[in-house]
Amino acid sequence: MNAPAICSRYRLTEIYATLETMLRLLFAFFFLLLPLAEIACFILVGRRIGLMPTLGLVVLSGVAGIVLMRIQGFGVLARIRQSGRQGRAPGKELLDAAMILIAGILFIIPGFLTDIVGLALFLPPVRTFLWNRLVRNMVVVDIGNMQGGTRPQTGPDRTIDLDRDDFHRDGRP
């Protein structure tokens, strides 16, 4: 199955115009509508549970975001290393790391709506769902072995490089 090719300058211009429109809408949402919605949520929650508990929840969510980002971030880094050892591209693991970073930032931003979105991004099933949606629209191109140099691959290297302090004999010559 071949990916659709973009073959005309007109088509590229149309795509750039669409992307520009999307970026403007995102800008409007994040910098105009989201703060207004967060203020409305603060007022509603503050009326319901009071000022001090509302402020406590905001501070607690920020601390929770930092802690969760740290805990889950180390797990993702371990999975990225494991993917590299197995010789496969760590695409899903990198997306997980990006979503955890975004989720942590959303938790640190004061507000209840951003906390809800951040909490959703911390959940592995949500990240898997988003990964599956993204993969459907991706075309993976294998460009072969990206090994540099002129030495051919001959198998595992038998050389062990040690510092002088790391080497000792256990009674054997």
Automatic annotation (TrEMBL):
Source taxon at top rank: Bacteria
Record-annotated membrane-spanning stretches: 25-45, 57-78, 98-123
Region (Disordered): 149-173
Protein name: FxsA family protein
Keyword Transmembrane: yes
Species per Swiss-Prot/TrEMBL record: Shinella sumterensis
Taxonomy of the source species: Bacteria, Pseudomonadati, Pseudomonadota, Alphaproteobacteria, Hyphomicrobiales
GO CC terms: membrane
Short name of one Pfam family: FxsA
Stretches with biased composition (Basic and acidic residues): 158-173
Annotated keywords: Membrane, Transmembrane, Transmembrane helix
